[in-house]
Design brief:
The chain has 427 residues and is of the alpha/beta class. Helix content is 44%, strand content 21%.
């Protein structure tokens, strides 16, 4: 089942063929949808997809992943289409890459993980993101450090071989790469400690985190709720760094809203591990807003992917709201009925057109009120510093002065109020 999509000879982009395999519980339409997503990933990385190849397999070939005859057929098609990049939708073993590369000569062979890592490296802007991506990439590349791969890295460059963890790191031996990995882990530990200090200062706030499949509209919703300008681009993994904004929903409800890296099917586990400090905003949030693209045919699978990553982060039991975004783009009653039937608890919104955002904010306030506590505390006049601290991060409902000192009636997030009450009782 080969589908040639076009032949253009003079194009500056790398020309790519995508390979998908129908096996196990996967159906042909599943693999087609997965290859559609792989096409978007390839285009995000800067490639031009000119063909697709699929094969139905009863078992995976340990030498080539696909059958050897199919492997040769893929290489022949690549030559006919002047392709210099073959991308597998599945993760390949180092041996499979090496065996395929022997057949391919000057055609690069990469898998889905290598492609995603390449995109992350391309989009990493801050020191933290660059450190996280380099660590994940080196951990992925370490078992693939062969003389053959080194030769191709130097010769070809481009997607899957970007500099940084590309030419320079591939040419050093495994010991030096392991040393570099150790140093990167130390750097991330240092960054993690800095994040922990920042996080402690934010615990007096109610924390809401946006999570969702990449390109579901998280950054747009972030801007809609916060009213502040955030980077938005219609591209997979456009943002890698966590964005945090303070949002006053009304006079009595203030939240810290965070948006972090999007999830995707088969997100390389090295990336999830490396980005764990960044994703702590998700782990420590009081409320998760799980955002889905209501227009996507794979919306159910996207939710399963999100829940799988949340489970990996040990955040699957967090309080959450399910949001179905982009409902302004749905003009079929049948589609709306499908969404209401399969996601009865879902809140339908349009972040771009501000549709039903008020309803969403009302639900956030209702959930916040469930987590609020009202308490009374007393401080003597000599405890001026403690008195000032007790009024931070809470609403002061009453303030009464008498001969013994100052009596406060406060309301706020339970953990912050408990902290103030315990502090006053221990004096």
């Amino acid at each position: 089942m080969n589908k040639a999509i076009g032949k253009e000879n003079s194009h500056p982009k790398e020309r790519a063929i995508l390979v998908g395999v129908i096996h196990g519980s996967l159906k042909e339409y599943d693999v087609d949808e997965h290859l559609d997503e792989l096409t978007l990933l390839s285009e995000t990385a800067g490639a031009e997809v000119v063909g697709r190849v699929t094969q139905r397999l009863s078992r995976i070939n340990p030498a080539f992943f696909v059958g050897k005859g199919k492997a040769q057929q893929i290489i022949n098609q690549a030559r006919e289409l002047s392709v210099n990049l073959i991308i597998f939708n599945e993760d390949l073993t180092p041996a499979q890459v090496k065996n395929f590369q022997k057949l391919a000569e000057n055609v690069k062979i990469i898998d889905r993980s290598a492609l995603i890592l390449d995109i992350f490296q391309k989009h990493a802007k801050t020191k933290e993101a660059k450190t996280q991506v380099e660590l994940a990439r080196l951990q992925y590349m370490l078992p693939r450090l062969t003389r053959l791969w080194t030769h191709l890295e130097r010769q070809m460059g481009g997607i899957g071989t970007r500099a940084g963890a590309g030419e320079t790191q591939i040419e050093v031996d495994r010991r030096l790469v392991r040393n570099r990995i150790a140093r990167l882990k130390q750097e991330l530990d240092r960054i993690d400690k800095e994040r922990e200090t920042q996080s402690k200062r934010r615990r007096e706030f109610y924390r809401v985190a946006l999570v969702g499949y990449t390109n579901a509209g998280k950054s747009t919703l972030m801007r809609t709720i916060s009213g502040e300008n955030v980077y938005i681009r219609d591209q997979l993994f456009a943002t890698l760094d966590t964005t945090i904004r303070t949002v006053n929903l009304d006079d009595n409800h203030k939240i810290l809203l965070s948006d972090t890296v999007g999830f995707i099917r088969k997100l390389p586990h090295h990336l999830v591990a490396s980005f764990r400090s960044t994703l702590k905003e998700v782990i420590e949030a009081d409320l998760l807003l799980i955002l889905l693209d209501a227009t996507s045919p794979q919306v159910m699978e996207h939710l399963q992917t999100i829940r799988r990553v949340l489970k990996e982060l040990k955040a699957e039991k967090q309080r959450s709201l399910l949001l179905l975004n982009k409902i302004d783009l749905i003009d079929q009653n049948g589609r709306l009925s499908y969404l209401k039937r399969h996601f009865p608890e879902g809140i339908m919104i349009s972040a771009h057109n501000h549709l039903r955002i008020d309803h969403l904010l009302d639900r956030i306030r209702e959930i916040m009120d469930e987590n609020y506590r009202t308490a009374e505390v007393r401080f003597s006049y000599e405890q001026g510093k403690a008195l000032a601290a007790a009024q931070e991060g809470v609403d002061v409902l009453e303030r009464v002065y008498d001969d013994q000192g100052v009596h406060l009636k406060i309301r706020g997030i339970s953990r912050r109020v408990n902290q103030i009450v315990n502090s006053s009782e221990n004096r």
